[in-house]
Amino acid sequence: MQLNLIWNAVLIVAVGMLLLRLAGRNSISQMTVSELVIMITIGPLLSRPIEDKGLWNTFGVASVLIFTVFVIQYLKIKFEGVETLLTGKSVLVIENGTINEENMKKMRLTTDNLEMRLRQVGIYAIGDLEWATIEVNGELGYKLKANKQPATKQDIQNLLLLIESKFSDTSFSYQKDTPDVRNKKN
């Protein structure tokens, strides 16, 4: 009897890992409500064989739950209305640097909570944002205003070219005055 219990425990972990691996790699924060409900249901279900509820019945039911995840994901991909119904859409909470109070109330989100989320991504002024949304997985999406966006490598290269062109009439040249370390031999 003891060996059977050990075998069941090992089999439960192996099959549970296989089923959850098949279900996908989404972290909990990326799961939709339906996926989260199914995953939460699988945990207690996998422990039922330990209570003598039937090993293969448990695996069958867990497999049906994972199959349900696949069907829901397929329907969401195939039909946009199903995705909207099951997962919702992102909600705009900041427009042109101002808070959308109506959408904040719908989300039951306080200004303090929104500001905390903004600080977590390095934004300290709401006015710096063109827009911000709360995505369907609860994460914050945003776009900074053009003048508040960080400079890209291309921006810096363009600036250097502009500086060089301004001083090309004089004897100063950025590339000529800057030593080329790559071509020097010691």
Present the secondary structure layout:
Elements: H1 2-23, H2 33-46, H3 55-78, H4 80-87, E1 91-95, E2 98-99, H5 101-107, H6 111-120, E3 129-134, E4 140-144, H7 153-167, H8 174-177
Antiparallel strand pairs: 1-2, 1-3, 3-4
Helix pairs in contact: 1-2, 1-3, 2-3, 3-4
Spell out the key features of this protein.
186 residues; alpha+beta; 4 strands; elongated
> Main sheet: which strands, in order across?
2-1-3-4
Count of distinct strands = 4
Specify the helix fraction band. Answer: 55-70%
Protein structure class: alpha+beta
What does this structure look like?
The structure is a single chain. The protein has 8 helices and 4 strands. With 186 residues, the protein is of the alpha+beta class. Strand 1 and strand 2 form a beta hairpin. The chain is elongated and about 90 Å long.
